[in-house]
Specification:
Keywords: Membrane, Transmembrane, Transmembrane helix. It holds the Pfam family DUF2157. The protein is mainly alpha-helical. It has two domains: about 140 residues, no CATH class; about 140 residues. Helices cover about 80% and strands about 0% of the residues. Helix 1 packs antiparallel against helix 2 and helix 12 runs antiparallel to helix 13. The model has no long low-confidence stretch (mean pLDDT about 80).
């Protein structure tokens, strides 16, 4: 039986005459991690930790010794590190997971290289074109590796690049328009990953990546609606509101169909925040603050109760 969960085994043991030895054997084969799994986990954990600390150490090295290094040393050391990590990735004896982790570290070093270049030639380390160049130069690595943490870095860089562009170039764009575009962008990526995850031909996409993308999409949706409410209903607001309503409805439907409580908790929480902002827009008096507080307490309690009931129902259906 595939995807056998601990709750399934407990449910079978309560409603069947399966012996304890069979239950214990099933738990060891399907639930408990054996020695090899723990060794694999620890190996990947320490590799990730080592690469993360190495990258952080390189960044702090340049920050601490910046005044004592000449231009050649600054650029040369960074380029050597990028080239060295790239060569290590190409070694045939390294397994794919370790290769992708090292490639992720190399992607961070590319950002360090552009930051060093920007500081030396005063191009601006916080300019949007710095993040744009960083994003463009790791695009091929992201596509080739198809590694979830690297995809997350890539998506974050795209969001930062666009946000800085609107702050430094398109300064006349209203805030709600920027948030709406970010909401559409992150929602499109989220839907793409969800559809790819359902495709059996595609390698399984980690749920944590989908959850982070969903959380980002809901966050931008919430911010956009609140901006529209508090800023006097911008002309973009009538376009944003129905799109958010449709996406929220689809998200709740997806959560019910997939029996996933994440969507059924994040989306109602967003709705609660939006309604609270609408009430505060009507009045900011003491009585309204008390009403909003009571509304939040009651609504959150109802959401939790419904989630508990749904979880019990889903467990019973198994």
């Amino acid at each position: 039986m595939k995807n056998l969960q601990r709750e399934d085994i407990y449910l079978i043991s309560r409603h069947s005459n399966v012996t304890e030895k069979v239950i214990e054997k099933t738990l060891k084969e399907n639930i408990y991690h054996d020695k090899e799994r723990w060794q694999t986990f620890l190996r990947l954990f320490f590799i990730t930790l080592g690469i993360g600390f190495t990258t952080a150490g390189i960044i702090f090295f340049f920050a601490y010794n910046w005044a004592d290094l000449n231009k050649f040393a600054k650029l040369g050391l960074t380029e050597i590190l990028v080239i060295a990590t790239t060569i290590i990735v190409l070694l045939p004896k390294i397994n794919s997971t370790t290769r992708n982790i090292i490639l992720t570290g190399a992607s961070f070093l590319v950002g360090v290289l552009f930051a060093v270049f920007g500081q030396i030639y005063q191009t601006g380390a916080n300019a949007y074109d710095f993040f744009l160049a960083w994003t463009l130069f790791i695009t091929l690595w992201v596509l080739v590796s198809n590694f979830a943490p690297l995809w997350l870095l890539y998506i974050v860089l795209l969001n930062i690049t666009f946000s800085l562009y609107t702050e430094q170039v398109a300064k006349d764009w209203p805030a709600i328009l920027v948030i709406t575009l970010l909401f559409l962008f992150n929602t499109a990526i989220l839907l793409t990953f969800i559809f790819l995850d359902k495709d059996k031909k595609i390698k399984d996409i980690p749920q944590w990546l989908i959850y982070i993308l969903a959380l980002g999409s809901v966050t931008f949706a919430t911010m956009g609606i609140i901006f529209g409410i508090l800023d006097g209903y911008d002309p973009v607001f009538p376009v944003l509101f129905p799109m958010v309503a449709v996406i929220f409805a689809l998200g709740i439907r997806h959560g019910i169909q997939s029996k996933n409580g994440f969507y059924l908790s994040v989306i109602p929480l967003s709705i609660i925040i939006i309604i609270s902002a609408l009430l505060l827009k009507i009045s900011e008096g003491g009585s309204m603050l008390l009403l909003v507080s009571l509304f939040i307490i009651v609504s959150v309690t109802l959401v939790i109760m419904n989630l508990i009931n749904l979880q019990k129902k889903w467990n019973h259906e198994k």
